[in-house]
């Protein structure tokens, strides 16, 4: 296939392994209504053990995609890879998505059309679960974005390349490991808000949809998923305007859940001298489970009781993560 001389949009994808999901992403790009000679794909490999170079060659041969592949010297997380992808890109518009996502057919055409307005610098769209994939209790579905989200996740985000480069791209200083050594990124939030505060226009396009893989997590990882939110105080310190937007989106603060955590903590503390107080949360838990179950079937009641306990632990983890982040970055998020 002849190389394109002037693509209008570059799709930048960072990836580590995930060959199966990446192929699904490539198939979604091959099904775009936007003609293939108007876009390119830039795949940045974060030191995969999977043969992503071979997969890119297959996408060129079988799907007719113009795919550029580059392997990073070391895995420093998605933000440096995305920056490298933009450096390699040839188009004036950058469309970010992830290797575990499948863009719907009209994604590129809808997003590109929004930039016909020269004032628009940032575009985002919905991120929804892949159709047909079951969502279970411990499934990771925090990616779901049905309306414009104040974090502007790079699973579905578009930028003008010149502005991206002028602002220095994604700040790699916002690439962290959480207390459990899991990658945590805040660079996408930071850059989006830099653009917004600079007065550039943005658009949310309901028709520019991306479908995201539904990941089933082990129970332990599901319970501690909220540890990644420890980065929020640093983002709020940089962008105080973000505090109100995050609260409005209810990303991390749920008044009822927080009240339950506080009450449970108070009862546990008081039970040191008054053990009978432990009966109160136990009775409340059973009552809640019976109400949600709509009856007293033991298995159903047990499920709802376990779910309520899990939700309480997850809420407590979020609060502890925010406390940790507030101390680390010297900024109170609430």
From TrEMBL:
Transmembrane segments: none annotated. Residues 10-146 form the Glycosyltransferase 2-like domain. Pfam families: Glycos_transf_2 (PF00535). Its EC number is 2.4.-.-. GO terms for molecular function: glycosyltransferase activity. SUPFAM superfamilies: Nucleotide-diphospho-sugar transferases. Keywords: Glycosyltransferase, Transferase. The keyword Repeat does not apply. It is an enzyme of class 2 (transferase). It comes from the Bacteria. The keyword Oxidoreductase does not apply. InterPro entries: Glyco_trans_2-like (IPR001173), Glycosyltransf_2 (IPR050834), Nucleotide-diphossugar_trans (IPR029044). This is Glycosyltransferase. It comes from Roseomonas nitratireducens.
